[in-house]
């Protein structure tokens, strides 16, 4: 078992069709105890129960420092350690530059960028005490292409910010044995794109992708298991593209 006795927190992990839950399921299948963190409305306790009684659901908003700290404390109270943090929570808005309001900017950057920083701050002291850990941050192909199919410029900026944060934290915490890496998903069929693309548009997009299909949630899970485990022991500060070859 790759992740036996490892404890993993997955933010935004309660959506049954989302990348977080699919990844939580794969982390659990590889032996990890998983803490599913999400907003109350997403019902993280039910999602954790779906994985089994040894897993934990925690309600927290990643944009709130106190709630991130309480979530980390709940994980430590239950399992005594935190080995893996998958910063997955994120929201998108398909807006053009001139339409982005202050509230739009705050909402999108707060969840992806502030949330990634706050949750990392909440778990890093425990990882330092343990002498190691792995943080996997979620960026997006939108950061690399300068605009996405579904994300506006503020989304691209938030996800590009995640790459900078990843590299800076990787440099800072490498000496503590803590690795920090990022994934850049391409277009993955989850609730985030539900109702936003017609079937024809999906076929059109798939035609442009060398692997000739949209991504599946499990494609992300595999990449996160790799970065979370010792298989990637000498990788830190990297950006792992999971996009079917979209950028070739
Ligand atoms: P999703 O909408 O299905 O899931 C997002 C989850 O985050 C939900 O469970 C939601 O409740 C949770 N969440 C939102 N705000 C939160 C907050 N403040 N605190 C805690 N949880 C919060 O989306 P998804 O497609 O599974 O995307 C997951 C991540 O992957 C996001 O960061 C997204 O930007 C990124 N991503 C997705 C794609 C894609 O094509 N699906 C592509 C690139 C990047």
Automatic annotation (TrEMBL):
Keywords: Oxidoreductase
InterPro entries, alphabetized: KR_dom (IPR057326), NAD(P)-bd_dom_sf (IPR036291), Sc_DH/Rdtase_CS (IPR020904), SDR_fam (IPR002347)
Acetylation listed as a keyword: no
Record-annotated Ketoreductase domain positions: 6-186
SUPFAM superfamilies given in the database record: NAD(P)-binding Rossmann-fold domains
Pfam families, A to Z: adh_short_C2
GO MF annotations in UniProt: oxidoreductase activity
Enzyme Commission no: 1.1.1.-
Gene3D superfamilies reported for this sequence: NAD(P)-binding Rossmann-like Domain (3.40.50.720)
SMART domains per record: PKS_KR
NCBIfam families per record: PRK07231.1 (NF005559)
PANTHER family per UniProt: BLL7886 PROTEIN, SHORT-CHAIN DEHYDROGENASES/REDUCTASES FAMILY MEMBER
UniProt record similarity statement: Belongs to the short-chain dehydrogenases/reductases (SDR) family.
Protein name per Swiss-Prot or TrEMBL: SDR family NAD(P)-dependent oxidoreductase
